[in-house]
Amino acid sequence: MGLILAPLLVIWLAILTVAGYQATLYFKETFSFSGLLAFSSVSLLCGALYFLLHFRRYQDAETLSVFEISLELLFNPISGGICVLALLLIWLVPMGVCKPLLLALVLGLAIATLTGVVYEESFMTKHGIQRTH
After folding, report:
1. C-alpha dihedral over 102, 107, 108, 112, to 10 degrees?
2. Which of 44, 51, 80, 120 gives 112 a disulfide partner, CB atoms 3.0 to 4.6 angstroms apart?
3. Cβ neighbours of residue 130 under 8 Å, at least 6 residues apart?
4. pLDDT in tens, 6-30
5. How many domains does the chain have?
6. Using alpha carbons only, how large is the chain's radius of gyration in Å?
7. CA–CA separation, 19 and 21 (whole Å)
8. pLDDT(65) > 70
9. By residue range, what is the domain housing residue 104?
10. Is residue 121 part of a domain?
């Protein structure tokens, strides 16, 4: 299973790194404390909503496959497509106000995805979900 999960984790780490680098470049050009605070708030809000909505689906489950939550997070075509599309728009289209919002969305989704993969085991233990192989 590591042969499937490891490349996906590397891809999501790359998305997080690229988005973080783009955010630092953006805020080096136009630094304002209120803008940075709004950016951080939107990013954390996007990540928290995605994280909570994703784990809410599995809250009442009795049995799950060992890597079911991780695979669902890493293989989610909607969040992956949103991240890739947003990063392409950031690079290809010069935008003023939309750029930090897209960066916040990408950072929030990437952080929530990676946090969800790490939190999966604790979540299953906390809710008494049996692991099947």
Report:
1. 150
2. 51
3. 62, 63, 64
4. 898 999 899 899 888 888 888 887 7
5. 1
6. 16
7. 5
8. yes
9. 32-132
10. yes
- 54 domain residue, yes or no: yes
User: Is the residue at 16 inside a domain?
Assistant: no
Q: How many helices (H) and strands (E) would you count in the chain? A: 5, 2
d(CA 71, CA 76): 8
1 pLDDT more than 70: no
Please determine, for residue 42, whether its predicted confidence score (pLDDT) is greater than 70: yes
Q: Which pTM was predicted?
A: 0.86
Task: Give the separation between CA 29 and CA 84, rounded to whole angstroms.
Answer: 23
11 domain-assigned: no
Phi/psi at 98 (nearest 5 deg)? -75, -25
What phi and psi, each to the nearest 5 degrees, are found at residue 64? -140, 155
Please state, in angstroms and rounded to a whole number, the distance separating the CA atoms of residues 64 and 112.
Answer: 20
